[in-house]
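Protein: HypC/HybG/HupF family hydrogenase formation chaperone
Species: Micromonospora sicca
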Amino acid sequence: MTSQPVPTTWTLPECHDDVCITCSDVAVAVRVREVTADGLAVVDTDAGPEEVSVALVEAGPGDVVLVHAKEAIAVVEKNS
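Structure follows.
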């Protein structure tokens, strides 16, 4: 078995055009309908209600959260 050499320098990804493949992911702002006991929330999306995790944020019904990959990552508007 031949071992591969370990690189001594790392190359950062290069961005071309207007979109960077490492930064192009988008989070979407959605309103929370309800929070369930298991750390999930039902939110309103353009495609209809969806279930997302709210384990990283303190969100409640009526709050607007930023969601990326079915995970709420920030609360952008609290329900008064």
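Remarks: DSSP finds no helices and five strands in the chain.
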